[in-house]
Amino acid sequence: MIVIDDLEKDFGVPSGPNPVLRGISLTIEKGEVFGIIGRSGAGKSTLVRCINLLERPTRGRITVAGRDLSGLAGPALRAARHDIGMVFQHFNLLSSRTVQGNVSLPLELVDMPRGERLRRVDEMLDLVGLTDKRDAYPAQLSGGQKQRVGIARALASRPSVLLCDEATSALDPETTKSILALLAEINRTLNLTIVLITHEMQVVREIADRVAVLDQGLVVEQGRVFDVFTQPTHPVTRSLVREVLNLELPERVRSRLRHSPQTSPGLVMRITFTGPSANEPIVSEIVRRFGVSFNILHGHIDYIQNAPYGTLTVEAGGSEAGLQAALDFLRVKSLKVEILGRVAAPDRAVA
Ligand SMILES: Nc1ncnc2c1ncn2[C@@H]1O[C@H](COP(=O)(O)OP(=O)(O)OP(=O)(O)O)[C@@H](O)[C@H]1O
């Protein structure tokens, strides 16, 4: 649905060229929810604005629904943009127009006949659950309701692509969830391709199928959300994932941890469960089979695209042979095991 080929964007500033996008290539499939994540200044907004040519790329090519946008101008560009809806962080509603008037605006711009326009607006308001707010003004709406109007307006022209630029960043967590649920439902029912720009991994985890990580104008990592979450390779991705998965050890354990590769009692290890292994009673099996004890220090299990993913940090006790057998067993089960160190005997009571 969207093909971005070697896209570069350079903002000419008085101090010289300022390359913001440096050779981006991405392919986004029809019906996919695609997340683009990065820290502030990575170039996310510039990238999404290039997709609908609100910014003109310096070099490279952008094709949406088979149409090369790069060479378009004037009425041809306006027609192409009609096929790309956009939702903004701060909603960008006209305060002087009612909800109905805001949603109707893009249809008025293409001279849609009044009767058809009103029917379309009603259909959109029904889709976003705001029929009863038809005659309200933006100032009378909550943030979540304003964003629903923004989504209804973006969808009014029945675009093939919806671009969301930090669409939930101005909303509280509860409202964010409801807006993401609405986007997921729209994606499912209309088979609409959605591109989500965000700095929050939580948003990507919630609804995206695939994700690209942007850093300093480059795509540094991309893949299916589950894979990127469970096996991040780039340092920026790792730090974004750490923020939502909270893999940090509690300070009271970390401060007592000593580096030690030996499999002796007090061994602290982090076991990562992914896919089917997350559903197996592996810990109880190890305790039973090898006579080791596990003192759980930290752990959680999460669901990414409905697949379980979790980590468990334990302090293991028992004989050296038992511990070694437990480690071998975990590896046979293809679980990722990281030895974090050892806590000395007097500290173990505290840990
Ligand atoms: N019109 C412009 N002229 C000059 N530089 C610009 C312009 N727009 C953006 N930039 C620069 O491009 C870089 C990337 O900005 P962009 O807004 O795309 O990043 P972002 O990842 O969306 O960050 P944020 O989430 O903070 O908006 C920044 O260094 C910014 O200063």
Automatic annotation (TrEMBL):
One annotated GO biological process: amino acid transport
Keywords for this entry?
A: Amino-acid transport, ATP-binding, Cell membrane, Membrane, Nucleotide-binding, Translocase, Transport
Membrane as a keyword of this entry, yes or no, is yes
Any one Pfam family here would be ABC_tran
Q: Where is the ABC transporter domain?
A: 2-241
Q: What's the domain of life for this entry?
A: Bacteria
GO CC annotation terms, alphabetical:
plasma membrane
Would you identify the family this protein belongs to, as annotated?
Belongs to the ABC transporter superfamily.
Instruction: Quote the PANTHER family the UniProt record gives.
Output: AMINO ACID IMPORT ATP-BINDING PROTEIN (PTHR43166), METHIONINE IMPORT ATP-BINDING PROTEIN METN (PTHR43166:SF30)
**Protein name listed in UniProt:** Cell division ATP-binding protein FtsE
Q: Which organism is it from?
A: Magnetospirillum fulvum
